[in-house]
Design goal:
Shape: globular
Strand order of the largest sheet: 2-1-3-4-5
Largest sheet: 5 strands, parallel
Strand content: 5-15%
CATH architecture: 3-Layer(aba) Sandwich
Order of helices and strands: EHEHEHEHEHH
Length: about 160
């Protein structure tokens, strides 16, 4: 399996299937707004478990600072990523199936102690992007400045 590695990427986005592309596009629009380099791969916790684990294990060594796992139904992907790295992992549950994403949300938020996954709302790709930007801003002054300006533009907010 060929992994898409982008030089200087800070955020690794991993989706469980091509059907998640619309949700991924919401993430990348936010990251692009802040000038954050990202990479995207389709990997499955169930269909490509070895490639998924390898990707997570090697992510920090390649300079990634945060991973976003996009998944629906059983939504094991974010937890599998978190189990193979100490990078922050954001879980993004996708709507779908008979439970319309509630099953995915529960799968992601119910991680065992010691293997946390930050979780955003069902289908909320924008918040996954914003949370990743906050994480990258910890070590990138340019992103931090853009994020502060964005937040001030939301209204009467002091940051």
């Amino acid at each position: 399996m060929q992994i898409n590695e982008v030089p200087n990427a800070k955020v690794g986005i991993v989706a469980g299937s091509k059907s998640d592309q619309e949700t991924v596009d919401k993430i990348t629009a936010v990251l692009d707004q802040f000038g954050i380099v990202w990479e995207f791969n389709i990997l499955s916790a169930h269909r490509t478990p070895n490639a998924t684990a390898k990707y997570a294990r090697e992510a920090a060594g390649r300079g990634l600072q945060v991973l976003i796992g996009v998944a629906g139904l059983a939504a094991a992907l974010p937890g599998v990523l978190a189990g193979h790295t100490v990078l922050p992992v954001i879980g993004l549950p996708c709507a779908g199936g008979p439970l319309n994403g509630v099953d995915a949300l529960h799968s992601i938020v119910q991680m065992p102690p010691g293997i946390p996954v930050a979780t955003v709302g069902i289908g909320n790709g924008k918040n996954a992007g914003y949370l990743a930007a906050h994480i990258v801003a910890l070590s990138d002054a340019s992103v931090r400045e853009k994020l502060v300006a964005y937040r001030k533009g939301l209204g009467d907010i002091e940051v």
